[in-house]
Amino acid sequence: MNLTLKIWRQKDSKTKGRMVDYKVTEISEHMSFLEMMDVLNEQLVNSGEDPVAFDHDCREGICGMCSMYINGEAHGPDRGVTTCQLHMRMFKDGDTITIEPFRATAFPVLKDLIVDRSSFDRIQHAGGYISVNTSGNTQDANAIPISKHAADEAMDAATCIGCGACVASCKNSSAMLFVGAKVSQYALLPQGQVEAADRVKNMVAQMDLEGFGNCTNTGACEIECPKGISLENIARMNRELMKASI
Amino acid sequence: MGGFFKSSIGRKVAMALSAFFLMFFLLQHFAINILSVFSPELFNEVSHFMGTNPLVQFALQPVLIFGVVFHFIMGFVLEIKNKNARKIAYVKNNGAANSSWMSRNMIYSGLAILAFIVLHFIDFWFPEINTKYIQGDWSGTIEGVEGFRYYEELTHKFVSPIRVGAYVLAFVFLALHLLHGFTAAFQSMGASTIRKKRLQSIGKAYSIIIPLGFIFIALYHHFNH
Asked: Which residue of chain A comes nearest to B83, CA vs CA?
């Protein structure tokens, strides 16, 4: 298939960016979106132009590096996938595809389609862990009985890969689905209880400090999340913060 | 606890609490107004009670005004903060792919409701305050009208088709606002998804029946007087 690509080009974080049009031809419908981007970049390199910078690592749908907003949706029109798992069969011959970086004040653009998501790291550092002595005397986690329901819910929350699609899709650039998932995965398990109150307070405080917006319950994050993280995690985080503050 | 209400989640909770209060107020306002269709006498009696009862006038009314002002101001504050969280807009954004129109446009439906409240205050609240607190007339009567004046004032306001049109339009916006706001308020308070699904049916019923009821009252009086 032959396509027209409208891509955000930005030299670095200090330079103003703009949309630039490119043509790609003979794209196979079986290619992943990133493979199509590789074809474009080969074209650009061969003609002596600067290739389009985009983040990618595993190309197996679990690294969450590909911060692309494709045709007005995080990771494109498919559901439950990251950009590397989005296939060109989702598009038609002759289509024009708009490709932008994830947009949020807390996710500044570094170059072209690459954004800085270290704000997520700082939220994690604020409390997204449990303090366990790993000197070799650690208790076997299986020795603590945990209900199947709680284990499943915690595991579902833990599948969050921190890609930022929730922030990118939210009209308010809210990070509450990400933080809700991180709070939930510990709040549901006995190992997370000891630091539960401090965790939610510190993580929410850091989230606010980073300049993310407020959740208005549109549910866009849940729909666009490649890992299907549910809104229930935001509700649980709200309950956890209320419990910790009273 | 003070720190809680300064946090983004605390502000969401504060918005939800004021929304619950306003939704309860709306319900009782509707319950009184619908009386005007079935029994003008009873409507007059209840209106006079609400208009002269010290508890309603000096305790509930200030709380209501605070609730309305707080909900609007906090709504605008959060909107500005949310706009600042994305200073560069997307060139192409397909919001309809993942969220309802109502949820994405709460600020606009809210602004339409605010415009309506201004009109409503000019129509009813300011004249009421003038009569009672400036002229000192707490009798609830007016020259040329037998019994209390409230039913007569209500029906008089709905003579103008322009005003009735504005009221109908405002209540359509109110329905749109409630269709998202009702369940969103519960979600902000930490209601679980399972409970939320049950609430969605109640929310939809409330969001459609109450505004439709107000529209019916306006149209009923317009076409019967």
From this structure: A172
